[in-house]
Design goal:
Layout: H1 2-26, E1 33-35, E2 38-40, H2 51-60, E3 70-75, E4 88-94, E5 101-107, E6 122-124, E7 136-141, E8 148-151, E9 160-166, E10 183-189
Parallel strand pairs: 7-8
Antiparallel strand pairs: 1-2, 2-3, 3-9, 4-7, 4-10, 5-6, 5-9
Helix pairs in contact: 1-2
Amino acid sequence: MAARLAVLCAIALVSGLGSAFLAIDKGGRFDALTLGVWEARPTEGTREADPYSAAMHARTGRVPLANGEGLIFLARTDSTGADLSPRCEYVIEGQAAPARLWTLTALDDDLKLVETVTPRPGLNSRQMLRRPDGSFRITAAAEARAGNWLATTRDAGGLVFALRLYDTPLTTGTGVANVPMPEIRREGCR
């Protein structure tokens, strides 16, 4: 009887601690704003932040953009729903949501910048080559490409694209229904 009780207590302890760790490690999915494959959490960095994302930021030391500063959108899949892979090349094409400035970076699954062959960690809207209609085409690859190139690496533990919008009207919650966001298309893998 005592052995069964000890086993049940051990299972309960491992399950409880494990689920708490996963909830804090990945952050809450509460109040998510999804536009295509891009997902943001507008309440991060505010007093309305859910307790899981607040605990995740406290544990990791990452500081979210405050309300009114901007918004970060993360993409973990391409436009077909396939997980992003560091061994693949992607085209990120279209238009970004309205913002005074935006940046695009490649991260690993732990949301850390990937180490690349270039000292430039990402792209920003001020250095972007654009088409006459304002749209752009970015190639995300480990090797340099002509035009707008976002450096990635094949050695990363996963791949996540982070699109940070600074001084955007999306932080006020207005006009999110028809906001343009770029599509992500896989071009090939090695």
